[in-house]
Automatic annotation (TrEMBL):
Protein's recorded name: TIR domain-containing protein
Native source species: Astatotilapia calliptera (Eastern happy)
Chain ranges passing through the membrane: 337-362
Annotated Gene3D superfamilies: Immunoglobulins, Toll/interleukin-1 receptor homology (TIR) domain
Span of domain TIR: 383-551
SMART domains reported for this sequence: IG (SM00409), TIR (SM00255)
Protein family membership: Belongs to the interleukin-1 receptor family.
PANTHER family: INTERLEUKIN-1 RECEPTOR FAMILY MEMBER, INTERLEUKIN-1 RECEPTOR TYPE 1
GO BP terms, alphabetized: signal transduction
Amino acid sequence: MDAFQLLFLVAVVTSISEWKSVSDSGKSQCEIMNEESITVLEGESLFYVPFILEPNFNNKNFTWYKYSTQIQNISSDKKARVHYQGEALFLLNLNISDSGDYAAWEIKSSGQCFNHPVKIEVFNASYRGSKMLNYGEIKNSDQSKKVPCPERVQSTCSAFKGNITWYKDYTLIEDQHEVELRVHNATKDHEGLYTCICTWAYNNKVYSTSGSRELILLEKAVHYLEILTPADESQEQFADEGSEIKLNCSVLCGTNVKHDCNASWYINGIPFKNRDGYSQTTKIATEEPSKNTIATAILTIKKVSAKDFQQKFKCFGEGYYYVTKNATLTLKRKESIIPLAIGGVCMLFIGVFVAVLVKYFAIDLALFFRPYFPLSSSNKDTSLYDAYVVYQTPMDKITEDTLSQFITQTLPSVLEDKCGYRLFIHGRDDIPGEDRLELVEKCMNQSRRLMVILTPDLGSGSMTTERWPASPQTSVMGGFDWQVGLHHALVQRELSVILIQLGDTGQQQYTHLPPGLQHLIRKSAPLKWPEGSGGAAAWNSRFWKRVRYLMPATPVKKCAQSTII
């Protein structure tokens, strides 16, 4: 061992011991990060940030040290040639003595500690162009090449908004200032050492940082074998019997391969030979700019027969060193679109038919499934009546008789006797002498629906009549019922309204009605009572099904008469 090697060993051991002493003195819990190694040229400048994309010059968590024969504190004075700011280390106008091991101690406010080591080696000018300063080679067969400026030089230029210039074998390349140098239609003449130099300003002084990459143009052939089409080892292709079809066999044999690349078709394991109804054409082509060599064989069947659907067509590829690969293709008859079209039309008709049935029988379906899907809210409803019946005193005798018949006989016989609902009807359910205003308000609050019976002369009749019937046969309603009912339906929105029309409205329709009623009619058209039609009074007629659909799903529980009063 010579004297130089002995001195170097002593320096290394001393550096390691000093490093450990710092770790043992309060930073033993620090996590040591991966060490970076940087080679730079004497006379240039280095701006370094450890594994951080955006430097923070005001970060107080960092302290930089240099480790050589002894630990040296690095100055944070910006005027010093070697100093640091936050995470960033500055070595300006480098000289050989700047070589050594550096480390940034990062202590966060949470108490976490990290050691960011970096080894910097400075070479003198005689090493310019040496592989030790080279950032790697660029080797590929692309015709258009891209030479990126080394990342360290890019980050320096980005941080200080520097200017980039490019050199090839130390000769300036005019008008090239981007971080990536593009070489189009590359030839052997373009090979060489490409150097990216960033000129940047700091503290009113100009510095430079460079990095080099070597461009090598590969022309050497690369042999491999891949069947491009058919894409799978076993594949089916649709064909029409009696029609012409072309089967494509494409084989990729490698890069820059001019020979030793073949593609051909085998039929049932036998190499193709010219026969009636079949023909094969082959060609070899080189793709640009990748230089990939592809052999193609096209088998033409002029008229597909039933026999061809039973045969196996094999694409066979052969490359360098007699390497072979194959993929099998079989023909399959195309399915006729007519059955699919007929099936689609049938499904469309069935869908329309079902939609019409559902629309027409929607109410019937809803009434059918009601007993099987009771609403949970119905069990919590404490109302005493399913509907509060509101009607107007008619003006003529015929209308009055029709209304009386509907109110006192038809309506109760269907909804109460046959469907189990409970209705509140004046003259039948009120007690003589009881305060009318209090009774109306109380019974309205205890009802789940408001049933409004409309008559042809409703608009011309008195809305506030005080006439009270002596018997259910002549039961009519006073005007206060209207006020309370419309208030609950329109203002408080506590009651759903069921509108029933007796008789014909005439040409005036509903324009003569009060605005509140017109609003309810616009929201829901009245159900017209089909007086005189056969089966109209049957509980399962179309009219009563629609009324039952609008009524609560589950009737109120039966209560004693004393409870209602």
